[in-house]
Amino acid sequence: RLAISTALMGAAPRMTLVADLETNFGAAKTQVMRGFLERIGSDTSGKESTLIITKERHENTYLSARNIPYLNLLPLDNLNARDILKAKKVIVSSSAMDTLRERYGA
Fold first, then answer.
1. 42, exposed or middle or buried, with CB in 10 Å at 0-12, 13-18, 19+?
2. By the 8 A CB rule, do 7 and 79 touch?
3. Measuring CA to CA, how many Å separate 65 from each of 17, 31, 50, 68, 93?
4. CA of 35: how far to CAs of 61, 65, 82, 84, in Å?
5. CA dist., res. 91 & res. 29, Å (int)
6. In this structure, what is the dihedral angle of CA atoms 49, 77, 3, 47, given to the nearest 10 degrees?
7. How far, in Å, CA of 27 to CA of 34, rounded?
8. pTM of the predicted model, to two decimals?
């Protein structure tokens, strides 16, 4: 818990909080995910990795993200310090942020 909390604190400057992602992806479309990443200022050239943290796995969001090589989509159940530290940009859904604050105090 301490490692994840410390990694989250270190990632705070490069963290972006967004409204719940689950409602943004009604269909599994990779282009929609790429457009979303471009709108929030993530590097879509593939040179920098991006981590998206969601509260739970949503099928359409997962299917939209799985074909993007620089993107890592993790639900809170699979969250680890290594992925947080490795990512150049961290995107957190608002529902996941509430749980992160409760669990880790971050």
1. buried
2. no
3. 18, 9, 11, 6, 15
4. 13, 11, 26, 23
5. 19
6. 0
7. 14
8. 0.87
pLDDT tens digits, one per residue of 6-45: 999 999 999 999 987 777 777 888 888 888 888 888 877 7
Token pair for 85? 């530290």
Report the residue count for the chain.
106
Number of helical (H) and strand (E) elements in the chain, helices listed first: 5, 4
Handedness of CA 16, 21, 23, 29 (dihedral sign): positive
